[in-house]
Amino acid sequence: MSKLKVVVVGNGMVGHHYVETLATSDVDAEITVIGGETRPAYDRVHLSEVFDGKEPSDLAMTTREHYDDLGVNAHFGDFVASIDRDAKTVTTVGGQQFSYDKLVLATGSYPFIPPVPGHDQAHCLAYRTIDDLAEIKASAKGKKVGVVVGGGLLGLECANALKNLGLEAHVVEFAPGLMGVQLDDGGSQMLRRKIEDLGVKVHTSKATQLISSGDQHRLKMEFADDTELETDMIVFSAGIRPYDQLARDADLKVGERGGIEIDYQCKTSDENIFAIGECAVLGNFIYGLVAPGYRMAEAAVSQLSDDKVSFTGADMSTKLKLLGVDVGSIGDSKGLAEDSRAFVFSDERDDVYKRLNVSADGKKVLGATLVGDCDDYDTILQYYLNDIDLPENAENLILPALDGEAPSLGVDALPMTASICSCHNVSKGDVISAIDGGCQSVADVKSCTSAATGCGGCAALLKNVVDFELTARGVEVNTDICEHFKHTRQELFTIAQSSQIKTFDELIEKHGTGHGCDICKPAVGSIMASLWNEHVLESDLVQLQDTNDNFMANMQKDGTYSVVPRVPAGEILPEQLIVLGQVAKKYDLYSKITGGQRVDLFGAKLNDLPDIWSALIDAGFETGHAYAKSLRTVKSCVGSTWCRYGVQDSVGQAIDIEHRYKGLRSPHKLKMAVSGCTRECAEAQSKDVGIIATENGWNLYVCGNGGMKPRHADLFATDLDTPTLIKYIDRFLMFYVRTADRLQRTSTWFENLEGGLPYLQDVIINDSLGIAEDLEAQMQHVVNTYQCEWKTAITDKEKLKRFTQFVNSDKDDDAVIMVEERGQKRPATDAEKKRLAFKAVS
Amino acid sequence: MSTVICKVEDLTKNSGSCALLTQNGQQQQIAIYYLPNTEQKVFGLGNWDPIGQANVMSRGMVGSIDDELVVASPLYKQHFSLVTGKCLEQDASLPVYELAIEDQNIVLKS
User: Fold this and answer.
1) Do A445 and A434 touch, CB atoms closer than 8 A?
2) 8 Å CB contact between A277 and A262
3) Do domains A4-110+242-302 and A124-238 have the same CATH topology?
4) Which CATH superfamily, name and number, covers B2-109?
5) Measured between beta carbons, which residues in chain B are less than 8 angstroms from residue A805?
6) Which of residues 9-48 of B touch A (CB under 8 A)?
7) DSSP code for A162
8) Where are the domains of chain A?
9) ipTM metric
10) Which residues of B touch A523 (CB under 8 A)?
11) Of A18-32, A115-129, A255-269, A446-460, which range is least confident?
12) Residue that wins the pLDDT comparison between A51 and A504
């Protein structure tokens, strides 16, 4: 049987989700996707972040290459002009024809522009696509005032964007309040207060009658109440209308107020045509949020398989941050139902408004409005979605708790079907099966189920469920570092810092038991080094150093060592290269270039290490800390010095940064990189700290990782000058050093950080914990007390004592046997050793 | 009979060192651990790591697990008892050498 031909019209978020779901399902389909925009699907929800420093490419949800890999035939930048339902073909404006067995319409919606006279002149724009953003940006350049028409969710997002562009932002709304669909009057008024405090001017009950040219500014808006407002640009965001023209032309049934009519299977009036997302209408309702769109896409895909599911509607509750203000709306948020009874809490001092609507018998949640504080959102939503009986005094759900502890719904009360993450449709049952499958932490569950990796709003709830489940099955969520200390690494750090403890013996005597072990000793060694930065081979500290730190070299499988001198940013003098070669030859060392732009010399005997280092130090080298949990390398590209595309001196910056942070002991190794332009040749976005040059300064990325579990770094701050860049890195690194677990890379630390990126930015940039100065001072101490550990060691008899194979003999270890391969030596295999031993005897 | 191996000052406290011993014409490497805060103070084990297959046990970290003094292999981190030489995680063990401190010397008793 030939493959089922599926044509998808539209490559927005929902269309893309359909393609990806179908391509990875069991259905044997030949998929064609046709998109009107020139770029493949991107994240429209976070559109305004492009004004906040993100590149359009950061919003991309897929690429042409990814579609190629999935075997999807992608056709972008061309609109479908018509559908021939009899011939089962679609024809594009560009004249191409595609035939289908099943057609999926995911055409989305377009911004409604009120038919006000003058609305179609220059600088009257819409807010919907990345191309719209470019126009808004161009129009705003060098201008002062911008107006958004529409005080709904998107309109306020857009006002934020205008504000970020440096304009005086106004919101003009026809209705009496902001976000009238989601919020009741009280909530709407509180939102207005908060937004006006942020400097956005709000005009409600304003009907625009004419847009003419202005006197002070480009345009003048004239309102029905005879007032007027001058502005340089107007962005319309007064609601959306479904793109249903294609369906109308093809005589498919459409809703009274537009939208392609669908049934529970997402089928239109033609059984071979589906419609999903914002172009579809189900029972007179358009689902204008992304999560219900995804559910429609999944339901539509399932109709092509044996395992069919229906889409019967979706919860439209939503929680978001608008201009930094928390806003939540659940179910019947305004209490419109006849038997609805409300609890209202309003705090005009801290600008918090909450309304909880319950049934007349007080047993069930019907809906809620939250403005200024959404901490109660998750709990109320779970009561609402799962129809759980309310406790007595349900008002406590929204009242500030007197003892400071917010009441929360015990996660054990949630049924298995309770939705934990609505972005990725993860239920409590899914989380539990992930734990049954071996997940042991929030980070495990995240990577296994994708929960909390969408908007991240459910992170706290997810953590509660995971912790509860782990505890329930006797997996002790024991955070003690080991049997010798009943403390976490973070607690030990604080103890050592506040009590000025400088040795392990004192720490274990006062705060632990036993003799320590290979878990707590290196951890304490690292803490001591971060705090006091004494030489790792000081007599009280040497016992804390693990295998590699102990001899300041990397032990290989046969007990020999490898040696890596520091090559800051990968820049090296020819003379130094020659010395590396001479040393390698003299001590017969296997040589290899590392991934961190330096040279690794293998096969060094323990007793040769001091001589090898003397020679290297004479040539100007320093220790590279390849053996330590500390800064490894700062990789760089050649940058503007040589490269035709570079915009900043990435090598110079990388050298300065490497010299600043070399020797900083941390919970795990640290890797950094500096790229001289957005081509990103230094691969900075896979590092703990990544820096990418821009025309205006430096973009800072944090918490990336390569290796076993790659993680793309997060954009932390943009267009920084060098002093600010260094300040942020100082604070970031020290905050990590203080709070991470042992052997926790920045990426996993970040995944487990409650509050995620906004929290981290708040701590580092806004100094929300009031510790920034302290963090900087601590880093400065480490910088000031830096020493090359090898340089100190080779002049200190007591430290050199350890670098002998035998305390009582000058002989070498006779078990170390090398053979030659490709002109260099390497350790002999077992079989080779046996052969050599046999030869020696005979 | 006692054989003097080295001086106490050649050792590093709470760490291991290695000595080469010739017994019956055979060369043997002994890992010597110096733990001044314990009653016995010096412990001797074979230096050959039977799991990692290299002469490295003297370079492991010492400590305790459930009151038992142990050394962790620097290669793959299995723990061996300083007293019995037995591996706590796997079926393997190290030879044990009886050591003592006499006149600031480390001596092998046998």
Assistant:
1) yes
2) no
3) yes
4) Rieske [2Fe-2S] iron-sulphur domain (2.102.10.10)
5) 18, 20
6) 10-15, 17-20, 27, 29, 32, 35, 37-38, 48
7) H
8) 4-110+242-302, 124-238, 410-468, 489-545, 629-772+782-800
9) 0.95
10) none
11) A446-460
12) A504
